[in-house]
Write a structure and sequence with these properties.
Elements (H helix, E strand, L loop, with lengths): L2 E9 L6 E10 L6 E5 L6 E5 L5 E4 L8 E3 L15 E5 L13 E5 L27 E4 L4 E4 L3 E4 L5 E9 L3 E7 L7 E6 L8 E5 L4 E2 L8 E11 L5 E11 L4 E6 L8 H4 L16 E3 L3 E3 L4 E6 L4 E10 L6 E11 L10 E7 L6 E8 L3 E9 L5 E9 L2 E8 L6 E9 L2 E9 L1
Antiparallel strand pairs: 1-2, 2-24, 3-4, 3-17, 5-6, 5-15, 7-8, 7-11, 9-10, 10-12, 11-12, 12-13, 13-14, 15-16, 17-18, 19-22, 20-21, 22-23, 23-24, 25-26, 26-29, 27-28, 27-30, 30-31
């Protein structure tokens, strides 16, 4: 379990704030047998065994309807790990009998966001703004209806077919059964039951939801990511690392002095992608064991503006699954940016962008000729245009100009009432 090792209060000469500094340990257990959900504000941690859940449903935002899968596996020396496998299938009718010939490809999360990067979400057609992967949005009923049947190979080797029948803004309706249709079950997952929880977890093995775990910022554990095997082949490889909850923002500072590095230098690099910390803050040496760079720092900003500096100082590997971090609270950083409360549920996809993208959002107020700008990260305007904004749901297609590869900002609306989204041009 997690525990505080040391708490030191120090007054930094740069400011009048008192910064709280502590060394904390987060443990995932022997062989990384658990996932550890950690909260920055009070160092609270909740551990869930790897086998305790299979699907994670997004619980916040009208269009944040991503469904991720549990990629965690326990590291067992000399034995294959018991893992969950989820497949896209050729079926769209849940009542049809299924067998393994209907399995098309294995699906994995892509670590971009819980809302868009979940395995059941990233099968969406990027050219269709109403396709959310597992289902399609009906703008008349404002409901998502299931369009794809999926298959699950559980950790015990048994198979289930499943279908997310609908999401009406308040509840998901999930159906699952054996391949031949026997033992069909219907589960209603109501967002109102989960309060501040970002995700709700479901287990095929128990046929029930996991008890809500409360708020968290970072999850420590195992997941699959794409790595080069050294011979030019890209493999989906199990790694041990840290993913964010998608609502905090993180920035990575490498090649720096951990004591003297300034948050302000990296404030413009903050990103909500889940794997900013990821797995490569450590490396294994056959002579030294696990080695952590001494010039690496991460900054975290919560939705309420609290800033934390995180320095990884130790990793004990599979023997204990313990990670030690030096955490410094930098207080609340204020911003003069005028944020709009007119626009909600904002998103841009696909991201990275090649030629065009779709911006989706809801608006409380309509505008006839709302400006649209594309800027570089220095704020320089590279392209401008206008668009019509209607009250309610909007999906706007945007042709991306001929830009060099890199990161940019697109803003929509008037200066006193606008929102901005980051995107990567590829």
């Amino acid at each position: 379990m997690f525990k505080n090792l040391l708490v030191i209060l120090s007054i930094l000469p740069l400011a009048t704030s008192v910064f709280a500094q502590s060394y904390v340990q987060v443990a995932t257990g022997v062989g990384y047998q658990n996932q550890a959900f950690y909260r920055l504000s009070d160092d609270n941690v909740v551990q869930l065994p790897n086998e305790s859940w299979d699907l994670a449903f997004s619980m916040t935002g009208q269009f944040n309807v991503g469904i991720a899968i549990n990629e965690s596996t326990t590291s067992i020396t000399g034995a294959p790990a018991a893992e969950l496998e989820i497949y896209e299938t050729s079926l769209t009718d849940f009542t049809a009998e299924m067998d393994t010939t209907h399995l098309l490809r294995r699906l994995l999360n892509d670590e971009s966001s819980w809302a868009e990067g979940g395995a059941l979400s990233n099968v969406a057609n990027p050219a269709d703004p109403f396709d959310f992967g597992w289902g399609s949005y009906n703008p008349v009923t404002h409901t998502l209806y299931g369009t794809r049947v999926f298959a699950a190979k559980l950790r015990d080797g048994s198979y289930k077919k499943f279908f997310v029948a609908s999401f009406d803004g308040s509840a998901y309706e999930l159906k699952y059964a054996n391949f031949d249709g026997s033992e069909e079950q219907n589960i209603s997952i109501n967002r109102g039951d989960y309060g501040e929880n970002i995700l709700a977890f479901f287990s095929f093995s128990t046929g029930s939801m996991i008890e809500p775990i409360g708020s968290w910022d970072l999850v420590f554990g195992r997941y699959l990511t794409k790595l080069d095997d050294g011979e030019g082949n890209i493999l989906d490889y199990p790694v041990t690392g840290v993913l964010s909850n998608g609502t905090i923002q993180l920035a990575k500072a490498s090649g720096v002095d951990p004591i003297g590095v300034s948050y302000e230098t990296y404030a413009d690099s903050l990103d909500s992608r889940l794997d900013i910390i990821g797995h490569d803050w450590k490396a294994f040496s056959f002579t030294e064991g696990w080695v952590i760079p001494t010039d690496l720092v991460f900054f975290a900003k919560t939705p309420t503006g609290e800033i934390y500096k995180l320095v990884f100082v130790d990793f004990e590997g599979s023997s204990t699954g313990v990670t030690t971090i030096e955490k410094t609270s930098l207080g609340v950083v204020s911003s003069n940016r005028n944020l709009s409360d007119n626009f909600t549920e904002t998103a841009l996809f696909p991201n990275p962008v090649s030629d065009n993208a779709t911006i989706v959002f809801s608006a409380k107020q309509s505008y006839k000729n709302a400006p649209v700008y594309i800027r570089d990260l220095t704020g320089r305007i590279l392209w401008s245009g206008q668009t019509m904004i209607e009250e309610g749901f909007n999906a706007i297609s945007l042709d991306i100009p001929n830009l060099a590869e890199g990161m940019y900002l697109v803003s929509l609306g008037f200066p006193q009432d606008q929102f901005s989204l980051k995107f990567i041009k590829q």
